[in-house]
Design goal:
Blueprint (H helix, E strand, L loop, with lengths): L1 H21 L3 H5 L2 E9 L3 H9 L4 E6 L5 H12 L3 E6 L8 H11 L3 E4 L10 E5 L3 E5 L5 H5 L3 E8 L4 H12 L3
Parallel strand pairs: 2-3, 3-4
Antiparallel strand pairs: 1-7, 2-5, 5-6, 6-7
Amino acid sequence: MFAGFALASFLFLAFIFAYLYLFPSPSLASSGCFLQKAVFSPNSEDDVVSFFNSAGKTIDVEMYVFSNQNIARSLANAAKRGVRVRLILEGRIEGVQENANTFDYLVSSGAYAKWASLSYKLTHSKLAIVDGRKVLVGSINFSNAAVTKNREAAAMLYCNENNEYVRTFEEDWQKAGG
């Protein structure tokens, strides 16, 4: 039963991404964002690393679970080459030490990091923004399981400046704690 549900979910997501690619919706286009690529896990790690390696000025990440070392290393390398890297992580996941490890590693590499605001029950976002215009948003946590084992989906978007993703991240950054 689960396999049938998983297949149906995958086919539904594939249809939605294909439809949005072939027929950009007025609402997506009017928001100033256009689909560049659909990303599916497993095997999304290279897409995420390449996404971050393309950064010239800024990277902003808001993530529920972040434990993948290769993705963390790509952010650390970006910070070391002068890219401003900001990270908001959820700190209230019971029994999960990985977010704290990633937080400490990236701060020691020159990134800025904050714990998600307590004004929400949880921050369950999976959002990354490169140079204020390239957006990765979907169901993919930056965990080992999410990028190498699970069926996950995300959209890489190209957006106008000052888009809703940037505005939401900025709002959450202001609310987040140190």
